[in-house]
Amino acid sequence: MDLILWRHAEAEEGSSTLPDKKRRLTARGENQAKQVARWLRQHLPRKRRVIVSPAERTQQTAHVLELPYEIEPMLGIGAAAADVLTVAGWPGQSGAVVIIGHQPTLGRVAALLLGGVEADWSIKKGGVWWFSARARNDGTQTTLRAVLNPDFA
Protein backbone atom coordinates (compact mmCIF):
# COMPACT_ATOMS: atom_id res chain seq x y z
CA MET A 1 0.00 0.00 0.00
CA ASP A 2 1.07 3.56 -0.69
CA LEU A 3 -0.17 6.35 1.55
CA ILE A 4 0.35 9.87 0.24
CA LEU A 5 -0.21 12.67 2.73
CA TRP A 6 -0.80 15.98 0.92
CA ARG A 7 -1.24 19.09 3.00
CA HIS A 8 -3.57 21.62 1.40
CA ALA A 9 -1.83 24.47 -0.35
CA GLU A 10 -1.59 28.02 0.99
CA ALA A 11 -4.98 29.43 1.98
CA GLU A 12 -6.30 32.84 2.95
CA GLU A 13 -6.12 33.79 6.61
CA GLY A 14 -9.09 33.05 8.81
CA SER A 15 -11.02 35.80 10.55
CA SER A 16 -14.07 36.30 12.71
CA THR A 17 -16.16 36.62 9.53
CA LEU A 18 -14.54 33.73 7.66
CA PRO A 19 -14.99 30.31 9.27
CA ASP A 20 -11.89 28.11 9.10
CA LYS A 21 -13.72 25.48 7.04
CA LYS A 22 -14.54 28.08 4.34
CA ARG A 23 -11.00 29.42 3.80
CA ARG A 24 -10.00 29.25 0.13
CA LEU A 25 -6.65 28.91 -1.59
CA THR A 26 -4.70 32.05 -2.37
CA ALA A 27 -3.33 32.61 -5.89
CA ARG A 28 0.00 31.32 -4.59
CA GLY A 29 -1.77 28.30 -3.12
CA GLU A 30 -3.41 27.52 -6.45
CA ASN A 31 0.02 27.57 -8.10
CA GLN A 32 1.45 25.33 -5.37
CA ALA A 33 -1.38 22.83 -5.83
CA LYS A 34 -0.92 22.81 -9.61
CA GLN A 35 2.82 22.15 -9.33
CA VAL A 36 2.39 19.26 -6.92
CA ALA A 37 -0.60 17.84 -8.83
CA ARG A 38 1.48 17.73 -12.01
CA TRP A 39 4.15 15.72 -10.19
CA LEU A 40 1.61 13.40 -8.58
CA ARG A 41 -0.17 12.67 -11.87
CA GLN A 42 3.17 11.51 -13.28
CA HIS A 43 3.89 9.20 -10.34
CA LEU A 44 0.61 7.89 -8.94
CA PRO A 45 -0.21 4.27 -9.72
CA ARG A 46 -3.37 3.51 -11.67
CA LYS A 47 -5.06 1.99 -8.64
CA ARG A 48 -5.60 4.97 -6.33
CA ARG A 49 -8.15 6.76 -4.22
CA VAL A 50 -8.15 10.43 -3.29
CA ILE A 51 -9.84 11.31 0.01
CA VAL A 52 -10.13 14.87 1.30
CA SER A 53 -11.24 16.85 4.31
CA PRO A 54 -14.56 18.68 3.98
CA ALA A 55 -12.72 22.04 4.18
CA GLU A 56 -12.91 24.23 1.08
CA ARG A 57 -9.13 24.55 0.71
CA THR A 58 -8.56 20.78 0.66
CA GLN A 59 -11.21 20.33 -2.01
CA GLN A 60 -9.64 23.09 -4.11
CA THR A 61 -6.27 21.37 -3.72
CA ALA A 62 -7.81 18.06 -4.82
CA HIS A 63 -9.61 19.65 -7.75
CA VAL A 64 -6.37 20.53 -9.54
CA LEU A 65 -5.32 16.88 -9.44
CA GLU A 66 -8.10 16.26 -11.97
CA LEU A 67 -9.03 12.90 -10.45
CA PRO A 68 -12.24 11.86 -8.69
CA TYR A 69 -12.12 12.39 -4.93
CA GLU A 70 -14.18 11.54 -1.88
CA ILE A 71 -14.98 14.00 0.90
CA GLU A 72 -14.54 12.38 4.32
CA PRO A 73 -15.76 14.19 7.47
CA MET A 74 -13.33 12.15 9.64
CA LEU A 75 -10.47 14.05 7.95
CA GLY A 76 -11.75 17.47 8.98
CA ILE A 77 -9.82 20.17 10.79
CA GLY A 78 -8.49 18.75 14.05
CA ALA A 79 -8.73 15.09 12.98
CA ALA A 80 -6.73 12.52 14.93
CA ALA A 81 -3.83 10.68 13.32
CA ALA A 82 -5.63 7.39 13.98
CA ASP A 83 -8.63 8.67 11.99
CA VAL A 84 -6.42 9.31 8.96
CA LEU A 85 -5.00 5.79 9.10
CA THR A 86 -8.47 4.29 9.53
CA VAL A 87 -9.91 6.23 6.59
CA ALA A 88 -6.93 5.26 4.43
CA GLY A 89 -7.12 1.59 5.42
CA TRP A 90 -3.43 1.65 6.39
CA PRO A 91 -1.57 -0.63 5.99
CA GLY A 92 -3.84 -3.27 4.45
CA GLN A 93 -5.38 -1.42 1.51
CA SER A 94 -4.06 -2.22 -1.95
CA GLY A 95 -2.98 0.48 -4.35
CA ALA A 96 -2.43 4.08 -3.31
CA VAL A 97 -4.49 6.38 -1.13
CA VAL A 98 -3.98 10.14 -1.30
CA ILE A 99 -5.15 11.97 1.81
CA ILE A 100 -5.50 15.74 1.48
CA GLY A 101 -5.76 17.28 4.90
CA HIS A 102 -4.42 19.62 7.54
CA GLN A 103 -1.68 20.33 10.02
CA PRO A 104 -0.96 19.32 12.68
CA THR A 105 -2.75 16.05 11.85
CA LEU A 106 -0.69 15.08 8.81
CA GLY A 107 2.59 15.79 10.59
CA ARG A 108 1.45 13.58 13.46
CA VAL A 109 0.65 10.78 11.02
CA ALA A 110 4.10 11.10 9.44
CA ALA A 111 5.77 10.96 12.86
CA LEU A 112 3.70 7.93 13.85
CA LEU A 113 4.55 6.04 10.66
CA LEU A 114 8.28 6.78 10.81
CA GLY A 115 8.94 6.98 14.53
CA GLY A 116 6.17 4.91 16.08
CA VAL A 117 4.94 7.83 18.20
CA GLU A 118 2.84 10.87 17.33
CA ALA A 119 4.79 14.12 17.39
CA ASP A 120 4.16 17.58 15.99
CA TRP A 121 6.17 17.32 12.78
CA SER A 122 5.71 20.05 10.23
CA ILE A 123 4.56 19.46 6.66
CA LYS A 124 4.81 22.57 4.48
CA LYS A 125 1.70 23.98 2.85
CA GLY A 126 1.19 22.05 -0.36
CA GLY A 127 3.78 19.45 0.68
CA VAL A 128 3.56 15.71 0.07
CA TRP A 129 4.94 12.82 2.13
CA TRP A 130 4.68 9.44 0.37
CA PHE A 131 4.84 6.25 2.44
CA SER A 132 4.77 2.59 1.44
CA ALA A 133 3.90 -0.43 3.55
CA ARG A 134 4.90 -3.97 2.80
CA ALA A 135 4.73 -7.23 4.70
CA ARG A 136 8.11 -8.35 6.03
CA ASN A 137 8.57 -11.43 8.19
CA ASP A 138 5.84 -11.16 10.83
CA GLY A 139 5.08 -7.47 10.51
CA THR A 140 4.69 -4.44 8.32
CA GLN A 141 7.63 -2.40 7.14
CA THR A 142 7.04 1.29 6.47
CA THR A 143 9.26 3.20 4.08
CA LEU A 144 9.32 6.86 3.15
CA ARG A 145 9.43 7.00 -0.64
CA ALA A 146 9.32 10.75 -1.25
CA VAL A 147 8.93 14.14 0.37
CA LEU A 148 8.05 16.96 -1.98
CA ASN A 149 7.53 20.63 -1.34
CA PRO A 150 5.82 22.78 -3.98
CA ASP A 151 9.01 24.77 -4.55
CA PHE A 152 10.68 21.60 -5.90
CA ALA A 153 7.81 20.11 -7.93
The name of the CATH topology is: Rossmann fold
Low-confidence stretches: none
> Looking at this structure, what is the CATH superfamily?
Phosphoglycerate mutase-like
CATH architecture assignment: 3-Layer(aba) Sandwich
What distance lies between the first and last C-alpha atoms, to the nearest angstrom? 23 Å
Number of helices: 4
CATH class, named: Alpha Beta
Radius of gyration: 15 Å
Mean pLDDT: 94
Helix and strand content put the structural class at: alpha/beta
Largest sheet: 6 strands, mixed
Q: How many domains make up the 3D coordinates?
A: 1
How much of the sequence is in beta strands?
15-25%
Elements, N to C (H/E): EHEHEHEHEE
Helix content: 25-40%
Structure description:
It is a single chain. The protein has a single domain (2-152), classed as 3-Layer(aba) Sandwich (Rossmann fold), CATH 3.40.50.1240. It has four helices and six strands. With 153 residues, it is an alpha/beta fold. It is globular. The two termini are 23 Å apart. Helix 3 (81-88) crosses helix 4. The chain has helices at 27-43, 56-63, 81-88, 105-115, and strands spanning 2-7, 48-52, 70-71, 96-101, 128-136, 139-148. It has a six-stranded mixed beta sheet with strand order 3-2-4-1-5-6. Helices cover 29% and strands 25% of the residues. The model has no long low-confidence stretch (mean pLDDT 94). The longest helix has 17 residues, at 27-43.
